[in-house]
């Protein structure tokens, strides 16, 4: 299987997208991701939207839900994250 270098580059070009994908396989709400990453919720929310548009994360609750939105990594996102880690493209903080 070939690597989707465009997706890899997209993720590693933003510390906030990296923070979101560090979720690995677990699901989380934006507030928890922001807290864990010591980042602003607005940055994390934007990163989640960008990653959703790329098919790397998905909303696990109804689109109409405004509070308590739970996000999880897609299979494609998991493969991209694994490639990023395998290639050593980010520092392990």
Describe this structure in words.
With 93 residues, the chain is mainly α. It has one domain: Arc Repressor Mutant, subunit A. 53% of the residues lie in helices and 6% in strands. The chain is built from five helices and two strands, in the order H-H-H-H-E-E-H. It has helices spanning 5-12, 15-21, 30-37, 41-53, 75-87, and strands at residues 57-59, 71-73. Strands 1-2 form a two-stranded antiparallel sheet. Helix 2 (15-21) packs across helix 4 (41-53). The mean pLDDT is 91.
Summarize this structure briefly.
This protein is mainly alpha-helical. The protein has helices spanning 5-12, 15-21, 30-37, 41-53, 75-87, and strands at residues 57-59, 71-73.
* Spatial shape: globular
SSE pattern: HHHHEEH
Number of domains: 1
What structural class do you assign from the helix and strand content?
mainly alpha
Provide tags for this entry:
single chain, 93 residues, Arc Repressor Mutant, subunit A, two-stranded antiparallel ribbon, 53% helix
């Amino acid at each position: 299987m070939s690597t989707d270098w465009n997706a890899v580059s997209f993720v590693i070009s933003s510390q906030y997208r990296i923070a979101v994908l560090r979720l690995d396989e677990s699901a989380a709400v934006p507030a928890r991701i922001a807290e864990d990453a010591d980042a602003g919720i607005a940055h994390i929310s934007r990163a989640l939207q960008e990653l959703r548009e790329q098919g790397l994360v998905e909303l696990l609750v109804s689109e109409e839900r405004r509070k308590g939105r739970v996000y999880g990594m897609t299979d494609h996102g998991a493969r991209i994250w694994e490639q990023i880690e395998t290639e050593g493209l980010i520092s392990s903080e």
